[in-house]
Amino acid sequence: MTDSADSADSAKATQSNQLSISLEDSDDVNDIVSKIGELSTGEKPAVNGAEGADGAKGAKGADGSAVEHEVEVHLADIQADPNSPLYSVKSFDELGLHENLLKGVYEMKFTKPSKIQERALPLLLASPPRNMIGQSQSGTGKTAAFVLTMLSRVDYEVNEPQAVCLAPSRELARQIMEVVEQMGKYTPMKAVYAIKDSNHKGPIDAHIVIGTPGTLNDIIRKRQLALKAIKLFVLDEADNMLDKAGLGDQTLRIKKLLPRDCQMVLFSATFPDVVREFAQRVAPQANEIRLKATELTVDGIKQFYMDCNSVQHKFEVLSELYSLMTVGQSIIFVRRRDTAERIAGRLNADGHAVVFLHGAMDSQERDSVMDKFRAGDIKVLITTNVIARGIDIQQVNLVINYDIPLTGEGIPDPETYLHRIGRTGRFGRTGASINFVHDERSLEQMEAIQNTLGCDIIKVPTDDWEAAHKVLKRALK
Ligand SMILES: Nc1ncnc2c1ncn2[C@@H]1O[C@H](COP(=O)(O)OP(=O)(O)OP(=O)(O)O)[C@@H](O)[C@H]1O
Q1: What's this model's pTM, rounded to 2 decimal places?
Q2: Letter string b/e over residues 335-356, b meaning 16 or more CB atoms within 10 A of that residue's CB
Q3: What is the ipTM of this complex?
């Protein structure tokens, strides 16, 4: 497969009809990486988002003190950098979108497409439809790429379901719905949920269905969803959705019922080799946009670790961290549901206002916690891998891996690590992640992840809070 950096069209030199392009293939990567590194370490002003309009500005820290974010380098500067995943040569106007969709896009304050949007959209919208396996780093705008595809492909005159989009969690499905509603604001589109407790009565006549695989299967079983007119099947977090150990069975059951010529669109920041091979079978002849393993980390996210002496010490360090640091919003990831609840209880008892979210909570509770966190009413969220993927809250500037991510078999899990830390550093913003290790084993697990990804994880002392504060403050700026 070719690694051409040229526009999608020029990559047709590939032998097969298939197209595979790499998003990061400049000769000058080091130069640019160091430039972005400088920008985000605080030596130069930090980047804070589209048009400098960052919701974190003026937000309160976990301790109630004000968090001020300097906004001197604008998204426009990053988007002009050819080696940034946010760079593009085109404008949205040149991507072949309907003017009603452009209105929606511009109202969301998107001025320029990101690299994945610029490259994927023309391929996704080309006729006849082609399958797509699209990869791009966390927070680089994959959602808009597939949402605009759904909104473009649907025939609004036909009141039948035509596009289905599945995600691994209800929280992510709800977030995608929000983007569909915003981008589709000037179209007559109708979209419905297929998530638990979404309470469908009669047959679905909406154009777009967004949900999770288990609930969608239930709806199909109850014959509430006609599949014959479905022409687009989107899997967000596709590697997770196809993973045999995860949601693979449920997703494939649905796929088998769809019309044969249905366009398959698979997006994720990660595609481990074995899942990618499987994805290629699920989405044959797909155009592919892919990244190398070493290109997966986002430069704006500074990665740290704190070496604790014991499980008890780990908690003390966490509590101390929240006493000392002024953090915008943060997510603490733990391995188990009961740990999430326990740590939340203890932090609350220590005077920090935190909440937890996990998969055993009922739908209403989950929605309420997430809505409050999204609105900024809650600053610290303790959770499991249930929301490790996709959740986009721009004000989150710190992610803590209280437990190092492991697979179900207890093996270090670099994909989940990337998705977890990718909850910060969204679309050019800066953020920090801190890994907590507490013994030889957890240190080795973290190092295994570090080696796989070829990233730097810097040690922050746990016995010198002044020094720790200095390092982290700079990263959280
Ligand atoms: N062209 C654009 N201009 C400005 N902001 C954008 C643009 N495209 C996307 N965004 C914003 O960037 C953020 C990240 O986008 P999105 O959630 O789609 O990332 P993603 O690639 O799906 O990440 P993940 O892999 O974590 O799911 C969102 O807040 C989105 O609104």
Answers
A1: 0.85
A2: bebebbbebbeebeeeebebbb
A3: 0.99
